[in-house]
Amino acid sequence: MQLMTAQIEKAFKKYPLYSQDGKGGDAKIVVKYFGGSAATWLITEGEPRANGDWMFFGFCTLGLPDDFAPGKLLWEWGYVTLKQLQEVRFPPFGLGVERDILVEPGKYKVKDEVFMCRQYGRD
Hints:
This protein has one domain (6-20, 27-114). 16% of the residues lie in helices and 25% in strands. Strands 4-3-2-1-5 form a five-stranded antiparallel β-sheet. It has three helices and five strands, in the order H-E-E-E-E-H-E-H. The protein is α+β, with helices and mostly antiparallel strands.
């Protein structure tokens, strides 16, 4: 699957790095990537790099438990590159990261997508 498309590139012109700084859960999702059993990247900002790669910022989980909230997943804000996402392989079959084709750029907020997840906070 293609992780970057012309539509996504166009959307990042509206949401470059730091453009949604301070919005937290109200930040708009440009693209959602997922893989493995629970790894999820809700990318809210991104810019191309001189080397042809992309730098992204967003709210992410690798599906690890949150030690301070039993039964919940650990989510955090952070950076990831397109190349890093393309290189990830999940055991046992070596499947890669996929793009959620139902998430349209700028249509959903981080809080709307994350809080639907039972492991985050809603039962």
